[in-house]
Amino acid sequence: MQTKPAFRKTQLARLKQQAPTTQAESAQLIAQLLVLPQWQKAHTVATTVSGPIEVNTADIVQAARAAGKTVLLPRVMPHRQMVFLPDPGEDGLITSKFGIPEPPYDPTQVAQQPDLIIVPGIAFVPATGARIGFGAGYYDRFLADYPGPTVTLVPSVMNFAAPAWPVEPFDVLIQTLLTV
């Protein structure tokens, strides 16, 4: 088993190679998401602005808006904390120090209890809910105190039968993993 940093390096290279497949699988994964009871019940949906190696979240945002849901996006904060804020639209986003588009900080708009969080990552084990993210721990810290439903959309390149990385006690398991 590789260390987390070694696994991330190898997996990120695989994700770049398989980006066209991930994009092609996005529609099927999003179709599964839109029929989930957790999605249908949610008034607020938290997601990310995806990069080219991830499932296309622009389609999730569009579907949420069409269904009258409020879309929330993460913003990183000091001390490796994260908050969710309403999506201001593409023109209102700013680029974080990690190069990720995020909403501007407004303390009056912080939404710490979204009805549903669509959790990103780079690899998942659907049988157990294990995930590994990009390495800063923002989602694990947030999810440790989050009581609501979590869902992940798992393209084939991110789907593992067993963890190829160490799963730590502080790694938060995802409740629902959708696969192709």
From TrEMBL:
Keyword Glycosyltransferase: no
GO-annotated molecular function: 5-formyltetrahydrofolate cyclo-ligase activity
Annotated catalysed reactions: (6S)-5-formyl-5,6,7,8-tetrahydrofolate + ATP = (6R)-5,10-methenyltetrahydrofolate + ADP + phosphate
Its EC number(s): 6.3.3.2
Annotated SUPFAM superfamilies: NagB/RpiA/CoA transferase-like
Cofactors that this protein relies on: Mg(2+)
UniProt KW keywords: ATP-binding, Ligase, Magnesium, Metal-binding, Nucleotide-binding
Protein's UniProt keywords contain Methyltransferase: no
Class of enzymatic activity (EC top level): ligase
Pfam families in the cross-refs: 5-FTHF_cyc-lig (PF01812)
InterPro entries, sorted: FTHF_cligase (IPR002698), FTHF_cligase-like_sf (IPR024185), NagB/RpiA_transferase-like (IPR037171)
Similarity field: Belongs to the 5-formyltetrahydrofolate cyclo-ligase family.
Cited PANTHER family: 5-FORMYLTETRAHYDROFOLATE CYCLO-LIGASE, ATPASE INHIBITOR/5-FORMYLTETRAHYDROFOLATE CYCLO-LIGASE
Name of the molecule in the record: 5-formyltetrahydrofolate cyclo-ligase
Species in which this protein is naturally found: Lacticaseibacillus jixianensis
